[in-house]
C-alpha cells in the first residue's frame, strides 16, 4: 500500500499540473483557507539536563508559530508498570501543561504500548490536564479493545496510522471505537483513499488528523485532503516535513497554521540536486526494543 500510495500521489500531482490548479480544486474545492498543524515536543526526563533541553525546544517551536504539541510517554513500557513509572510520566505531563498554559493543546502518543487496563488507569491520571487526545493507547488491530478504552476515558482517543484502506477503518468507525482517525497518506492508499476514509469518518461524526512522520511530499499530499473535508481537525508534521533545504519554497507555520497551498498539483517544487542527498530511508514504524529487566522484545 505504501508503493500504491506514492503512485496515487504522483498521479494527482500530474493531474493538477496539467489543469494548472491545486489538487484540492480537483477534489471538490477548499472548505478552509489554512491548515492547522502540531509539532512533536515533550518533557522526556525530569533531570536538569532534560528540563533544559525541553524548555529550549519549546521556545524554538513557539517562536516558529506552533500552538499544539504531541509527546510520547517515554521509556520502555510493558503490559503493566509500577506506580513510580506511571507517576513519573504523569508528573511530566502536568509540567508540560504548566509550561504552556491552557491556550495550547497537548496530546500524547502511547505507541500501542499498553493493555486496556493500564491505558485507562493512566488516562484517568491525565484527565486533569485535559489532553487534546491520546493516540494508540493499545494496538489498533482489536477495535473492541480500543472501544473499551474510549468508553472509560473522558477525552478523545485516536488511532489509524497503521490501518490501510477504508476497509481497515470500517470496524473502528462502526464501533465508534475512537473519536479521531489518523490515516497516513503515504500508506493508507494515497490522496484518493485518504479522502474516502475521511468521508467514511464524517458520517460517524469522527474527525481526521492525518499521520505524517516522513517528509514534505507526504505533508503536501495530506494537506490537499485536509483542505476539502469538513471533518478535518489538525495535521501532524515533523521538522523535516516543512521541506527546509529540500523544497524551493518550504512550508511556514504561523499562529499554528500553514497557509493553503496555491500552486498547481501538490503545490511544491523539489530541489532535485538536494534530494539526491536524501536517498536513504528507514521505515518510521519499524524497529525493535528490549526491556532492560528481562530482555523481552518491545515495540518502539
Give unreliable regions as ranges.
Answer: none
Oligomer: single chain
Major beta-sheet overview: 10 strands, mixed
The CATH top-level class label: Alpha Beta
Using the 3D structure, state the CATH architecture.
Alpha-Beta Barrel
Number of domains: 1
Q: Helix and strand layout, with pairings?
A:
Layout: H1 2-19, H2 23-26, E1 34-40, H3 48-63, E2 68-71, H4 83-100, E3 105-109, H5 116-126, E4 133-135, H6 143-151, E5 157-159, H7 165-174, E6 180-181, H8 190-202, E7 207-208, H9 216-226, E8 235-236, E9 253-254, E10 257-259, H10 272-275, E11 289-290, E12 297-298
Parallel strand pairs: 1-2, 1-8, 2-3, 3-4, 4-5, 5-6, 6-7
Antiparallel strand pairs: 1-10, 9-10, 11-12
